[in-house]
Structures
1.
Amino acid sequence: MVGSIIKSKGQLDVLKALSNLNVKYRNKVQLDILGSGNKRYIKRLNQFIEKNNLENINLLGYQKDISSKLKNYDVAIMASRGEAFGRVTVEYMANGLVVIGNEAGANPEIIRDNETGLIYERNNINSLTKKLIYVIEHPEKANKLSVAGQDEVYAKFTTNINAKNVYNEYIELIK
């Protein structure tokens, strides 16, 4: 997970979903949270991690050159309760990660569930847990999702495509 560490980004929801996993699955998961944020919320996350013996979780703080770091991961979680566009979701997909996204904000517009990534039900920890288990149990399908997600990004969200879309909208407005 990359971004500001604040309640609205949903990091605690992800920790709760991971705590729902049985040991068999939990041992297959490492979660790195990259970013800085609210010190009280970070303390709360650390307390939850300790209380629930979530050993494979690292709060790494602010990081430079995120794109190079994303190449070290297979899955990204977008648990934010609302994003206007979802730039980080697109960045995850562009870097070939399987994205598990909350059905809030722009995620449902960017991710086609079970085609270019996975969408879990808003504010539903059990739904997120099920998506995590699915990715663990189906690595071939996860690989197909990551490839399809990457293809989708390069077909719809490149700088040139966005510039052209903005230009066309502008032309329509001045007609």
2.
Amino acid sequence: DSLSCPLAMIALDIEVVSDVVCPWCWVGKRRLERALAERPQIEPHITWRPFLLHPWLPPEGTDRESLYLQKFGTPRAAGELVSRIEEAGRPVGLDFRFDRIGRVPDSTAAHCVLRWALAEGPAVQGELVERLFRAYFVEGRNIARPEVLVAIAENAGLSGEAALEALQDGRFAAAVDADWTRARSLGVTAVPTLLYEGQSLVGFQPYPAFRRLITG
């Protein structure tokens, strides 16, 4: 009988700077996961860091169609962008439902909950990120509302009471602000941006770029 030796695991620390109201960030997450699945000897440690696409938004957010019109100029341009996002999502199993999104929320509170979840471990934080993306882009829920964030945290197996306390604890808001300031100081202007081993993968990238990140 031949003896086989298990492959040595290779640790890879990755920081993902993203916003939970950024559809390209969700597609990027799936592309990263696909690339990692092709290299089972990689042991990833993924930390999600905040970026605010719309830092000027009031706490109650704003109407989605109006914001898209403001950003992209015409209803046709906004519609074409939505179509491109939906097309990019299908191959990685994402069914975006922009028709269910009435408002674009201020994502600061969601980032506070994610910062709190990081203390439970990167895997827990990653699960919460996935649920926040789905809540917003598929279910059309307002992820700025505390009761929505508490429910999502509970569905991820976390304490709803602790999640609510995190929203009320200024330390997490300060940590989110510090992380966002750091991202801008590193020159992050587009998301998702991946930071790893002194390198970066900036903005939404085609799948081969994620493969190169993993294979080196």
3.
Amino acid sequence: MKEYLIMFLSLFRLAGKKIRHGKNFQAAPVQRISPGARFFMKKGAHAVLGYNGCFSRSGNIFIGEQGSLILGSRVYFNVNAYISCQNSIKVGDNCIFGPNVTVIDNNHAYSKEKGVSTSLHSCGEISIGNNSWVGANAVILKDTQIGNNCVIGAGCVIKGVIPDGSIVTQDRRLCVKEMQ
């Protein structure tokens, strides 16, 4: 019963986003977004949510005015997931994200002379293929491409290219194995 209530509440919540953002917001009608999850889009942002996505409680999704977030069907974000999209984040179908996962396509700009800027960002892209699993407390940084059928182990910090069928563990080894 609770599952149906969450889907019903999500429908209203997403209808408000559709009214506010028009063609820049598209979502399949079946979504499970916990009432405790925050979903914020700036004007000009673009979002596409595939069929039957799930955002568990205490999650935060932020899409900046130039950002484009595209999530495939049956994507699951566990509790306390954090997504910051200033440029481009694409997630394929059937992906699972463990608790406390961070996906962030931007950094604060930095220079030796001025230090860290609070208003300027350096942005990149993130792409995560179909059927991938990102373990608890993992951090996915800008300029990352994770292939299809990958496993990112708990606590990993990922930047760069991870080939299809890879398993990445926290000890920084990249183990390319055939998935069975």
